[in-house]
Amino acid sequence: MRQGAQDARAHRASGRLSVVDPAREAAVEVLTAVREADAYANLVLPVVLRRHGLTGRDAGLVTELVSGTIRRRGTYDAVLAACSDRPLERVEPAVLDLLRLGTHQLLAMRVPPHAAISTTVDLAGGRGTGGFVNAVLRRVSERDREAWLRQVAPPRAQASDRHDAVVHSHPVWVVAELRRALAAAGGAEEVEALLAADNAPPRVTLVARPGLAERTELPGEPTPFSRYGVALEGGDPGTVPAVAEGRAGVQDEGSQLVALALAEAALEGRDGTWLDVCAGPGGKSALLASLAAGRGARLIATERQHHRARLVRRNLAAVPGDHVVLTADGTRPPLVGGGVDRVLVDAPCTGLGALRRRPEARWRRERGDLKALSRLQERLLAAALDVVRPGGLVLYATCSPVLAETERVVSRTVRRRDDATLVPLDLGIAASAGPVPGTVQLWPHRHGTDAMFLALFRRDVPSSA
């Protein structure tokens, strides 16, 4: 049991509190898992809701409490720092979770101040902690969000990373990297629109897996770019029969386009073996395998972590064909060089292109992560080029627009390899040109997708051969 829930239940049992609100108690449990176990809120939330028996409006309240508290953490910390008599780094992490939770209710939800404060104090439990939480949140309640932003956000000069970081709740270094990436795409002035899009919860998108389901049997509005996708207006996607049966899945439209870009690229010669490197959890693998099966090809999926390899197998369970899932390191795939026709390298990255769906990623990453990640990405791409046959295709993709993970990896690969040619990629989508000519960069604020980057390579015979 998490510490916040322990404290609350102990005090409730002792008679010093009335009933602790179950929705807020569930929200604290999710926030604790995100902080202590590096969990993702969108994965933990359904489990916690089932455990607490929360549905309907109560489930919606928990979702808003959790997602809003995580997304707006940067803004709320600036406000809390102005309202606390002690530095935030000296506040116990569990108490800081509660302060952020209460601040979200005060500044972003239609919760009466007395209710937001009292329910948060109830969760805090002990007299000393409760008194501190009560005092800080009362100060927060003295102004609305806009008034607080006028006080705590640095004055906005032109291209002010610090101002935008506080207002839009992103780390300063992330704002700077996103601004650079947008400048490379001809849109440096769009940074506020991108940051705002990062804080807007996306609609759930489904994909009909070819040969298994038709898009017309899925509820929702057809996606504009993927002919297999629909966007749901609401509801639990698990109740859709095709999803429950594995004939369709939950998948962002940008991820669908990654699989389609590789599958639909023109290829001369044989086309019987496809490889998905870093395949977990398997959404793109399932779409690729479905497309491959329709052509009599098979997919080999490799994933370094055992538990993620199991997820890939589960995703492929309903797809017909002789597909294989291997637990293997993508930098050393257990395949004979030249034996593969198409390869997807969906490389590990900062995930800064998917902050709409996984907002906690912005608080977990540091600028120093970029160097190690870009080196890994280059190694994965090099291994894929080694294993694909001459004339074969490799699609490099990241869920990040950061130049160190896109332009740098592509440019360094082209310079180092005389057997790798960058093939111009055009998805027919406006304003999607990438930072290297012929590459593609999608954007949440432009296209309504995750910020997926795509670059297509052809393996050539080395000039020294």
Secondary-structure blueprint of this entry?
Layout: H1 3-13, H2 22-37, H3 41-52, H4 56-71, H5 73-83, H6 93-108, H7 113-124, H8 127-140, H9 145-152, H10 161-168, H11 172-184, H12 191-198, E1 205-208, E2 221-222, E3 229-231, H13 241-244, E4 248-250, H14 253-264, E5 273-277, H15 283-293, E6 298-303, H16 306-316, E7 324-327, E8 340-346, H17 361-364, H18 369-387, E9 388-398, H19 407-416, E10 420-423, E11 440-441, H20 444-447, E12 453-459
Parallel strand pairs: 5-6, 5-8, 6-7, 8-9
Antiparallel strand pairs: 1-3, 1-4, 2-3, 9-12, 10-12, 11-12
Helix pairs in contact: 1-2, 2-3, 2-4, 2-6, 4-6, 5-6, 6-7, 6-8, 7-8, 10-11, 14-15, 18-19
Organism: Nocardioides acrostichi
Family: Belongs to the class I-like SAM-binding methyltransferase superfamily. RsmB/NOP family.
GO molecular function: RNA binding; RNA methyltransferase activity
What would a concise description of this structure say?
With 465 residues, the chain is an alpha/beta fold. The protein has 2 domains: 3-145, N-utilizing Substance Protein B Homolog, Chain A; 252-459, Rossmann fold (3-Layer(aba) Sandwich), CATH 3.40.50.150.
How does this model look, in words?
The chain is α/β, with parallel strands linked by helices and 465 residues long. The chain has two domains: 3-145, Orthogonal Bundle (N-utilizing Substance Protein B Homolog, Chain A); 252-459, Vaccinia Virus protein VP39 (Rossmann fold), CATH 3.40.50.150. The protein contains 20 helices and twelve strands. It has helices spanning 3-13, 22-37, 41-52, 56-71, 73-83, 93-108, 113-124, 127-140, 145-152, 161-168, 172-184, 191-198, 241-244, 253-264, 283-293, 306-316, 361-364, 369-387, 407-416, 444-447, and strands at residues 205-208, 221-222, 229-231, 248-250, 273-277, 298-303, 324-327, 340-346, 388-398, 420-423, 440-441, 453-459. Strands 5, 6, 7, 8, 9, 10, 11 and 12 form an eight-stranded mixed sheet that branches. It has a four-stranded antiparallel sheet with strand order 2-3-1-4. The termini are far apart.
